[in-house]
Amino acid sequence: MELDSDNNTLLKTGLVITATLVVAKLIFTFFTSSSSKKKRLPPTLQAWPPLIGSLLRFLKGPIVMLRDEYPNLGSVFTVNLLHKKMTFLIGPEVSAHFFKAPESDLSQQEVYQFNVPTFGPGVVFDVDYSVRQEQFRFFTEALRVNKLKGYVDMMVTEAEDYFSKWGESGEVDLKDELERLIILTASRCLLGREVRDQLFDDVSALFHDLDNGMLPISVLFPYLPLPAHRRRDRARQKLSEIFSKIIGSRKRSGKSENDMLQCFIESKYKDGRQTTESEVTGLLIAALFAGQHTSSITSTWTGAYLMKYKEHFSAALDEQKKLMEKHGDKIDHDVLSEMDVLYRCIKEALRLHPPLIMLMRASHSDFNVTTRDGKTYDIPKGHIVATSPAFANRLPHIFKNPDTYDPDRFSVGREEDKTAGAFSYISFGGGRHGCLGEPFAYLQIKAIWSHLLRNFELELVSPFPEIDWNAMVVGVKGNVMVRYKRRQLS
Ligand code: HEM
Ligand SMILES: *[C@@H]1O[C@H](CO)[C@@H](O)[C@H](O)[C@H]1NC(C)=O
């Protein structure tokens, strides 16, 4: 979407103002009075003017701020946002507690409350941790390997169908194309055949309204009577009705499908209770929100890098040729799992461009961390603690030439994602709340890119894309224009 510059400035100003409110809200909601008995507090970011200086710097861009301050303040520091505190834990040496702490110490519920009107009542952040844990178990079960095998067949079919509609040669906005394809695939695997085949236009318009109903201001005031919020609520209501019908007819017919919808319908709580229609709908919406933009953004970055660096494109292509010699045209879960070169190309794109750039928790107990150079800091309870995949993934003591696209850094012998322990590479988070959809995401992106590599010559004709830092899920700015030409690989 093109905006003229006045609108753009207005939009940016609006974003800054709403972001300010957002942070103010976070602050007032989560910080209790700060304890001051402790002696070894982390260094505090100093900024001018006092009181709001650091807040302004934070809002101008958390990643730029981290990049500027890390050399002076080190891997643990506190940013005073007005009179409250956010403490950053950057790098595997100090972030272990962030990832491993139990819910009673570090919780997500407060920081992710704003999702409730989108996901709907009775699910995820609207319920107690004990219930949420069971719902995450439903996710885990719906994403087991035996289920993934079935989803892969649908991913492959969707990719084949989609790209069969491209001509012999032409030019496309790859970003736009991959977004469309991924919503189709996600609908098929997660929401089910009924939605994918019959109701698709309807439902995708409703999801569009849900998406557009999540604004920066929504984080602060999720129930503000804005047109976007009203459309969101109407869409959520309509989706309830649609899914209610689908679930009802599946239950009556007794037919079972291999999709996440079916898994959620059959999921049971420990006490034997079945999921309600409303819970099933909410969990599906949550899955789509977790997995759709993240995956489509990652597919686009992967493509952009492959087209930019011919040597990696050739390496990925050679791998496809070898696999075709071995397996013919067949692509299934196991063939995709053999695509190590492509896997590393995706993983490296995701290292440089994690779509979720800041992870946060509300802290409910005191803890301490010790840095690489042996300094120990006490983090008082009441702080918001945060870590940043976008920054941590580019630390030079973990990743050699961190700003360079180098998929081989993950190869046997180097394995830079592991040498500093489990939390070196955190595009998917890790530990207690690590992404449950990681294997699904890789399979989906590999299904798309193996098809493209096998069937098309591709060339990036627009400049290498920039990062769209302003998006809620950080993605690719502008168009990604690609010239394609069909080919036969043998
Ligand atoms: C490239 C794609 C993806 C990326 C980069 C990604 C990233 C992440 C990250 C960073 C977290 C941790 C959030 C935190 O610690 O606060 C997370 C959690 C989660 N993701 Fe993903 N994700 C992706 C795809 C998916 C897909 C496809 C699904 C489901 C179909 C999914 C489902 C989940 C769920 C359910 C959680 C919550 C786990 C928990 O809190 O215990 N994700 N993801
Ligand atoms: C850090 O916290 C742990 C657990 O509360 C405590 O046992 C330990 O003594 C603390 N370490 C330092 C250096 O204060």
Strand content: 5-15%
Radius of gyration: 23 Å
The shape is globular
How are the strands of the largest sheet arranged? 1-2-8-5-3
The CATH architecture term is: Orthogonal Bundle
CATH class: Mainly Alpha
CATH superfamily: Cytochrome P450
The CATH topology is given as Cytochrome p450
Low-confidence runs of at least 5 consecutive residues: 1-6, 32-36
Overall mean pLDDT score?
A: 91
| Structural class by secondary-structure content | alpha+beta
Distance between the termini: 40 Å
Oligomer: single chain
Please bin the fraction of helical residues: 40-55%
Task: Compute the number of helices.
Answer: 19
Q: Which small molecules are bound?
A: protoporphyrin IX containing FE, 2-acetamido-2-deoxy-beta-D-glucopyranose
Question: What is the element layout, followed by pairings?
Answer:
Elements: H1 5-30, H2 53-60, H3 62-73, E1 76-81, E2 84-89, H4 92-100, E3 106-107, H5 116-119, H6 129-142, H7 145-164, E4 169-173, H8 174-191, H9 193-197, H10 200-212, H11 216-220, H12 227-253, H13 260-266, H14 277-308, H15 310-327, H16 333-337, H17 340-352, E5 359-363, E6 367-370, E7 376-379, E8 384-387, H18 389-392, H19 438-455, E9 456-460, E10 466-468, E11 475-477, E12 481-486
Parallel strand pairs: 2-8
Antiparallel strand pairs: 1-2, 3-5, 4-12, 5-8, 6-7, 9-12, 10-11
The chain binds protoporphyrin IX containing FE and 2-acetamido-2-deoxy-beta-D-glucopyranose (NAG).
Describe the protein.
The protein is α+β, with helices and mostly antiparallel strands and about 500 residues long. It has one domain: Orthogonal Bundle (Cytochrome p450), CATH 1.10.630. The protein is about 55% helix and about 10% strand. The chain has 19 helices and twelve strands. The strands form four sheets. Strands 1-2-8-5-3 form a five-stranded mixed beta sheet. A three-stranded antiparallel beta sheet has the order 4-12-9. The protein has a two-stranded antiparallel sheet with strand order 6-7. A hairpin with a 6-residue loop joins β10 and β11. α8 runs antiparallel to α14 and α15 runs antiparallel to α17. The longest helix is centred in the middle third of the chain and has 32 residues.
